[in-house]
Amino acid sequence: MAIASVASTPDTTGINRWWRVVGGLSMNIALGTLYAWSVFVAPLEKEFGWKRAETSNVFTIAAVVFALTFVAAGGSDLRISSQTPRNSARGAGCKEGAGGSLVCRPRCS
What residue spans define the domains of the chain? Predict the structure, then answer.
């Protein structure tokens, strides 16, 4: 009975609860980009003639930097975003977008 009453309470923030699901899914997709590494291993080895140990080192460095930046970003988000989850998610999204755009920019040769 208590569960039904909690589930039926109206949302007072004005945001449809499905947008929260979309936001959470989007954040998980962004965070999962590191784990797509396995898709790129074989083409990198073939293209550049790298050995598996060399490509594994790249993933190791990426995973360590990923973890360290999460610690730093978590601390900065709490201070910068007034400690609200919505603002924290917005800040994280902006940082992810900025990082993605820096990585994907065209390189002049």
Answer: 19-104
**Cβ contacts of residue 37 below 8 Å, gap of 6+?**
59, 62
Residue 1 three-state SS: coil
Looking at the predicted structure, is the pLDDT value of residue 46 above 80? Answer: yes
Residue type, 21: V
Global pTM reads 0.50
How many alpha carbons lie under 13 Å from residue 30 in its C-beta half-sphere? Answer: 19
- Residue range 67-93, pLDDT digits in tens: 887 777 666 666 665 566 777 777 777
Per residue in 15-34, pLDDT (tens digit) is: 678 887 887 787 787 677 77
Residue type, 89: A
Neighbour count for residue 101 (Cβ, 10 Å): 9
**CB contact set of 51 (below 8 Å; sequence gap of 6+):** 45
